[in-house]
Design goal:
The protein is of the alpha+beta class and 83 residues long. The chain has one domain. Helix content is 27%, strand content 14%. Strands 1-2 form a two-stranded antiparallel ribbon. A hairpin with a 6-residue loop joins strand 1 and strand 2. The chain is elongated. The N and C termini lie far apart (73 Å). The chain binds zinc ion (2 copies). One zinc ion (ZN) binds next to loops.
Length: 83
Amino acid sequence: MIFIISLSIIFYFICMEIDKPTPTENPLMGECPDCSEKVESGWLVCPQCRVVLRETCQGCGKVHDRWVKYCPWCRYLNATAST
Ligand SMILES: [Zn+2]
Ligand SMILES: [Zn+2]
């Protein structure tokens, strides 16, 4: 009897785990510097006008999104996005 109860408790917890809503990721959004279309962080090109959205930082050499105002790694002012 105890075995059945404990089994049902375990089953209940398994169901709770399954029912858990998956955390919705909220990716960083920006605007295409060319056509102002909403773009997501990490995209290589704009899906609207195919302009390249990634560029190499002149301060640290890391590749970041073109539409960010400052490089997230070295705070280098991004001239492309500031206009
Ligand atoms: Zn675009
Ligand atoms: Zn940088």
